[in-house]
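Exercise 7. Predict the joint structure of the components listed below.
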Amino acid sequence: MIAIVNTGGSNLSSVSNAIDRLDCPWIITQDPDIILKAEKVLLPGVGAARASMDKIIKAELSEMLPRLTQPTLGICLGMQLLFEGSDEGQTACLGMIPGRVTAIPRNEGLTLPHMGWNRLSFKSDSALLKNVEEGSFVYFVHSFQGPINQYTKAATHYGVEIPALVEKDNFFGAQFHPEKSAAIGQTMLRNFIAL
Amino acid sequence: MLSKRIVPCLDVRDGQVVKGVKFKNHVILGEILDLAQRYRDQGADELVFYDITASAEKRTVSTKWIEDTAQVIDIPFCVAGGIRSVDDARRVLHAGADKVSINSPAIERPDLINELAKEFGSQCVVIGVDSALQDDDYYIWKYTGSESTAQSAGKKTMDWLVEVQERGAGEIVLNCMGADGTKVGYDLKQLRIARDFCQVPLIASGGAGSLEDFKNAFIDAKVDAALAAGVFHRGEITVPDLKRYLKSQGLEVRL
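Solution:
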């Protein structure tokens, strides 16, 4: 069973549909007991960091989520929440991965949000990249980015280098949307389920 | 590098995909799920569904077909048509759409753009703009879903593009009405002007007939994505052929 943490974002059904297509059982929940007992945890998120953190705090999950020991995958904003803090609304985040989320620099000729299909360049091995070729396209929609550091497993380029896949211990984060990245995204979600 | 997006557009009327010429004489092309799945398999980067009668008939899109589509489609898709409140948008997004596109209701009540951006984030909020040349300048139109309701909104297109971005639009689809359905190519002149006014992604719409038309929109007008309907639905251009061609012209595409 995968617990999909209900952070109030609007992509919950996209994520649950993707898990359905892989024939894996799931539940959308805010219940700490269910989340703690789940084999895996997904932290989706669309919207603003501050609003999502407020919802997580209100649901009394902000202390518990960083202590999870099962494989946990944050998607898009859910990945950004894994860092220590975000400039989007100047909020503290969950802090599983060191570093702070900042705005993507506005460069001449580059539109924001960073919206569309962009390539993955690999930094180091990750179980989630099994059967994924370097240079594969995945779907991004975001205006903020995490820091590049030792936990960056794959990056993408949009004016600057942006972490696309991060991993530290049992915590994984995808800045792109695997649930919307066609066959490549499905492969990565299958890899996550197989952990 | 971010790839250029190819976006088949499915005009939906009474649960089926239709296509007209210059917004008139719609003919049924097929079932929503069949066409959506086909385009996903062909490598379309995104899909747009326009419920072309919803705005004119003052009703909101049904969400059943959105749920069905979301279950099978693993690429982003946007739904447009009759969304005139935060609650309307929430129903569509929760049914599984990734974005909502607002056209006539945004013209009627521009604050809706701010409300949607605040509630769901700008990345969900696409503004569809129907624009036509009128006395040496471009003006926006509303209720273009049917000929009997279409009317000029009396506002200059470029002013409107600036306003919707200030209000939180995350993407703009510029449908150049003079070119729509004609297959003579995108309105490059208008798109080039619009490009200078858009800091958010700009999607060209209306007029695609040949492979070169897509290339011109990407290279000459520097749009982020190109939307087309008839040429794809009728099989005159396939997404894989188009993408191979664009790649041969030096453009970054997802193959």
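Discussion. Residues 182-193 of chain A form the longest helix (12 residues).
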